[in-house]
Fold:
Amino acid sequence: MGPIDLHHQGVERVIGAYLVETSDGPAVFDCGPASALPTLEAGLRQRGVELTDVRHLLLSHIHLDHAGAAGTIVREHPHIEVHVSAIGAPHLVDPSRLEASARRLYGDTFDPLWGELVPVPEENIRIVGDEVVGLECFASPGHASHHICFAHKDGTLYAGDAAGVRIAPSRLVLPPTPPPDVDVAAWNLTLDELERRAPKRLALVHYGAFDDIERHLSELRDRLHQWEQVVEAGATQDEFVERVHAGLGELDDDGLQAVERAMPMWQSYAGLKRWVDKVKNPARDGASSPGRAGRVRGKDAGSARIE
Structure:
């Protein structure tokens, strides 16, 4: 089954959530931000499910576009268990650092973009192991150090951002590479693991479910390498964004708008610049500040990060 479109900021195909049947009842994979919670509830209702029926939240990682509503949901439905990586869990229990970082980044746009950020009680947190309510679970760093994926027995891999961004019905596959902890080397290993597992379909939060697995992952790997090379060669932010947009020619205006909202290109540049400076050119680390590489442009905002 495809994603529930959360219509973030009134735009289609930016953020999706998935209703997942588990061995212990209904679950939601990546619940989205609190600002889109009414839309999530309406989407679940259209599928015959209320949040009172949901028993589990399965979180790929804790960026606000994927997990921002978790605390609000648990506050209203305290029976729900929240499954998250050991690295991400402390930031759900105490989101103050995450919120402070996001508010510095988004300023006055934080509240309309993301809504209220509520702590998840520690008793509701479940640190994932190899299996979660009948789904296989495994670490998938690269986009973020705390990223995990869930593999359903029906062949669906709930991939979060580990399999990139692809706005249905487009075939373009893009790597969201935000600061502060994008790791290109780790992401390539994660792609190796996704290929080894050979799922039947990839469920992406941004945006859709796809079954052309081999082509999809190959394009993601190639574009990640290409973007890294562009930044390593010394491209400025404006040059990087111009080159990326030139390669998105098949997208219509709505598709391009959805891509920029799901993964603002200035954020992808900032993350890759930080990676190149810290790992590939350590002597240059600190020569530029990813935090100053770009600013939020009105409502064009992707996901908040831990700084």
